[in-house]
Each structure stands twice: as C-alpha cells, then as structure tokens.
Amino acid sequence: MDLADLTTLRLGGPARAVIDATTESQLIDAVRVADEAGDPLLLVAGGSNLVVADEGFDGTVVRILTRGIEVDSDACSGAMVTIAAGELWDGVVARAVTEGWVGIEALSGIPGSAGATPIQNVGAYGQEVSQTIASVRTYDRYDRAIRTFAAADCGFTYRSSRFKAEPQRYVVLSVTFQLTLGDLGAPIAYAELARALGVEVGERAPAADVREAVLALRRGKGMVLDADDHDTWSAGSFFTNPMLSADVADALPSAAPRFDQPDGTIKTSAAWLIDHAGFAKGYGTDHVSLSTKHALALTNRGGATTAELLALAREIREGVQASYGITLVNEPVLIGCEL
Ligand SMILES: Cc1cc2nc3c(=O)[nH]c(=O)nc-3n(C[C@H](O)[C@H](O)[C@H](O)COP(=O)(O)OP(=O)(O)OC[C@H]3O[C@@H](n4cnc5c(N)ncnc54)[C@H](O)[C@@H]3O)c2cc1C
C-alpha cells in the first residue's frame, strides 16, 4: 500500500508492511513485534500531519484504528472523558458539544485522531488540548511498559510535547480530558472568532454556536477536509508560527502581527511572513502550491510528488529568511525526507 493512500496530502510511496490495529492489545503487540525485530516502525492514524518521502517507508506501518469513549461525569468534577487513540477527533468534539462537555469546542474541524492531539498539543482559535487534557496513557517502547502521564508531566508547549520530543518512544493509547459541564463554551480567546460570534474576547457563547462559527471560519480557509477541494489536500499549516526574542520582533515591519507570550517571547504569524515575502495564496505550480485560501498550507493540486512539495517549502523558507532573517520550521512530521 502507498502511504499516499493514508495521508491527507495524498503523497508518499509504498510501505513494506501495513498492520491495522483495531484494539489496544493489537496495537501494543504490533509495536512490540516490530521493535523486537529491529524493524523501523511508523505509526499512522489520520495521516493529516505527515509528509512521507516518494520512496515510501521501508518498515512496518501500524495504523491506529482503536475505538472507544468512556465517560465519567458528575456535577462537581465535570466530565472525565477517556478516548481511545484511534477515535476521530472531530467526532469527539461534536459529541462534546452535544453532551454539554465544555473546553474543546474551538478545536472543531481539525482532522485526524484523538490520540495524535497531545503529540503536537493541537490548537486553534484560542484553545489547545493541553488546557483540558487530564492525562495521557502510553506504551513506552523503551521500557516496554504502560506509562500514564498527568498533564503537568506531558511537557506541553506550543505545538509540542514530550511525545513529540521523543518520537520513537511513546505510543499514545488513550487520552483523558477533563471538561466542565454546561451549554456555554469556554471564554472566547481569539479575536477573529469573537467577531464571528458577535461577542467580545473573554465572553462566552453557546458551545454549539462556537463549533459552527469555527467550522465556517475553517472552511473559508480550506482547513476542513473536503476531497473535492485541493486546497484541503494538505497537512494543515506547513510551518509553525515563529516565537521571537524582543530584538528580532522589533526588527520586523510595524504591520507584522505580534503576540506577547507568557515566557517573554513574541509570537508572529508565519502566514503574514510568507505573504509579505512575496508568496501570495495560490503561489506555486500546477502540481504543488500554497492553498488559494490560506498562505500557510502547502497543497497537492493533483499529480504532485513529495519532492515537489519540499522544493516549494524550501523556496518559501528561504524567501522568508532572505526578507526577514527568520527561519520557518515545519509543523508536520517528515518521514524519510527533510527540508
Ligand atoms: C486541513 C488540515 C487542518 C489542520 N488544522 C490543524 C489545526 O488547526 N491545529 C493543529 O494543531 N493541527 C492541525 N492540523 C494538523 C493535524 O490535523 C493534527 O496534527 C492532528 O492531530 C494529526 O492527527 P493524525 O491522527 O492525522 O496524525 P498522523 O498524521 O497520523 O500522525 C502525526 C504524527 O503523530 C504520530 N502519531 C499519530 N498517532 C499516534 C499515537 N497514537 N501515538 C504515538 N504517535 C502517534 C505519527 O507517527 C506522526 O508522527 C491540520 C491538518 C490538516 C490536513
């Protein structure tokens, strides 16, 4: 099977072997067998954050297809919701909104699995999963043991975690979220979303309205998967937003977005840098281009190769570097290839 069939970019050559793991024990067994044989292993769930080489993957691909949601809900502690790694993330968010579990509604429409969300501390529209994750249950491939991490021990930072920092070590088996109960979503923390809802930042709106508003905003940017829309044949944002020191941020043009971070760094917008370095939406070739709806998504227009995608990514990275002295860093995980 080609990895192109398993990734939202629809890129990537063949895997030597593919194993479907539909139960937790199948998942652990498949990983253990590959590790004991010294066989390279690639875990794939939704394939929405992966860029795989045209040469493919010379090892075992284990597809994470586990399912199950357990709920422990009471009026005092809210809902403790434990989700198997392979559950579709957006299905979880939809259910949360229906059930009145609050705190993940702004993360509507993000493709992929629940188990991948802690890996890069998935975030959007003012929410990150680190705000609501209570614990992450893993299989530790080094110690060959089950290990559960409380949120404080997950090393969550912007688009990263201990799981991302040690990519060969942890298999996420399930994630437990602690969500408050109610019909109103969490206070809105993102200006564009607040505007869409007609509220001020910091105010609340019905969680169902937040979900609909986020989905509408995301669709407008090609950030909800749609097989008929090549703007969504992507891995989402291709570059992370740079965190800058005050000196570097001061050197940017005054119009560049700047967001103060709790650690004293200043976040700017990778999309703004790309656009203002001369790469407008749609920039590229017949095969690969920036999305026509969002300057931060690199897309497969059909018939693309990973080599072409990476060539475009390099051109953009170098253009931004030449214009602003900032080196963009890729967000998706690169397999068998590099920028
Ligand atoms: C259109 C689009 C929009 C997106 N929007 C956002 C967004 O708003 N915010 C955001 O943060 N991200 C976004 N993304 C990126 C992506 O959806 C998330 O990173 C998502 O969590 C990836 O989940 P997945 O199941 O597809 O992971 P995969 O792509 O299958 O895997 C990603 C990485 O995680 C590893 N992995 C997957 N599951 C496990 C597991 N259970 N245990 C250990 N390792 C595992 C894989 O080996 C790989 O290294 C977007 C992507 C697309 C295509």
The general outline is globular
Radius of gyration: 20 Å
Total helical elements: 8
Taken as a percent bin, the fraction of beta residues is 15-25%
Question: What's the main sheet like?
Answer: 6 strands, antiparallel
Amount of helix = 10-25%
Helix and strand composition category: alpha+beta
Ligand types: flavin-adenine dinucleotide
What is the number of strand segments?
18
What distance separates the N and C termini? 25 Å
Q: Mean pLDDT, rounded to whole units? A: 97
List the helices and strands in order: EHEEEEEHEEEEEHEHHEHEEHEEHE
pLDDT under 50 segments (min length 5)?
Answer: none
Structure description:
By secondary structure, the protein is an alpha+beta fold. The protein has eight helices and 18 strands. The strands form six sheets. Strands 5, 6, 7, 10, 11 and 12 form a six-stranded antiparallel β-sheet that branches.
Strand-helix topology:
Blueprint: E1 15-21, H1 24-36, E2 41-44, E3 50-52, E4 57-64, E5 69-74, E6 78-84, H2 89-99, E7 101-102, E8 123-124, E9 127-128, E10 133-140, E11 145-150, H3 162-165, E12 170-181, H4 191-197, H5 207-220, E13 243-244, H6 246-250, E14 259-260, E15 266-267, H7 270-276, E16 288-290, E17 298-300, H8 306-324, E18 333-335
The structure holds flavin-adenine dinucleotide (FAD).
Q: Gist?
A:
By secondary structure, this protein is of the alpha+beta class. It is built from eight helices and 18 strands.
Observed structural traits:
339 residues, alpha+beta, 6-stranded antiparallel beta sheet, 3-stranded parallel beta sheet, 18 strands, 24% helix, 24% strand, globular, binds flavin-adenine dinucleotide
